[in-house]
Design brief:
By secondary structure, this protein is mainly α. The protein has 2 domains: about 70 residues, Arc Repressor Mutant, subunit A (Orthogonal Bundle), CATH 1.10.10.10; about 140 residues, Four Helix Bundle (Hemerythrin (Met), subunit A). Strands 1-3-2 form a 3-stranded antiparallel beta sheet. Helix 2 packs across helix 4 and helix 5 crosses helix 7. The longest helix is centred in the middle third of the chain and has 25 residues. The radius of gyration is 21 Å and the shape is globular. It starts with 8 loop residues before the first helix and ends in a 9-residue tail after the last helix.
Length: about 230
């Protein structure tokens, strides 16, 4: 017979979840893929990954299976496991969704962001200006861009929107890193961020949405000219 449990049971059942070794390895590999430390099409050798992470081969294999399920790597029969290369068609699909999500985030930010989050967005833009002026540190540029977007989505105040973009985050970061290699893209991208921020600063939600979508469209065009780094369909 079932009985009602005392209302105090909730606290006693609370647990703290620590990342497993598999999760830690998977997170490290995701970051390396996003930042192009592991290049599209690169062969992943278990022995090297084991040495690099200090983890056991079974843990590395589990992490690789997890990333394969996420579509970030692929096994080729008899040839090994490789970082998956997005086709141009897949990249276009990502950009189409990203334009809608980031446009909505910019619109919502104009209506909902508090002064603290607006200041955080401005600081991220300042960091992006500094990194772009330095010219030779793509990682600093990518981190400043990532912080700008973290502030943008936090200020949008929509957890569902935030979770949706998180599902694309590794692919988006990977494409950002690829397009940054196009000559002059760093400066053009900075100008796009500045126009987006100006619209947000003016609290012009419509203009902010348009500028966010225009930035994504410009990134898509840069991706299409990125030295054939992505194969066609």
């Amino acid at each position: 017979m079932l009985t009602r449990m005392d209302s105090s049971y909730g606290a006693s059942m609370a647990v703290t979840r620590h990342p497993t070794i598999r999760d830690q390895i998977a997170n490290s590999l995701r970051r390396a893929i996003a930042e192009l430390e592991l290049q599209p099409g690169q062969l992943l050798i278990e022995r090297e990954l084991t040495e690099r992470t200090g983890a056991s081969r079974p843990s590395v294999r589990e992490a690789l299976r997890q990333l394969e399920a996420e579509g970030l790597i692929e096994s080729r029969n008899g040839r090994g496991t490789y970082v998956r290369v997005l086709s141009l068609g897949e990249a276009r699909d990502v950009y189409e969704v990203r334009a809608q999500l980031e446009g909505l985030a910019a619109r919502l930010f104009c209506h909902r962001a508090d002064d603290q989050t607006r200041a955080r967005l401005a600081r991220a833009l300042d960091a992006l200006r500094t990194a772009t002026a330095a010219g030779d540190d793509h990682r600093a540029i990518l981190e400043a861009q990532a912080e700008f977007y973290r502030a943008l989505f936090d200020g949008a105040g929509n957890p569902v929107l935030d979770r949706t973009i998180q599902g694309l985050q590794v692919r988006v970061a990977q494409l950002r890193a690829l397009t940054l290699g196009v000559d002059g893209r760093d400066r053009a991208s900075l100008a796009e961020f500045e126009r987006l921020h100006a619209a947000i600063d003016a609290r012009d939600a419509g203009a902010a949405e348009r500028e966010a979508a225009a930035h994504v469209q410009a990134a898509a065009e840069a991706m299409a000219s990125a030295h054939g780094l992505l194969p066609s369909d």
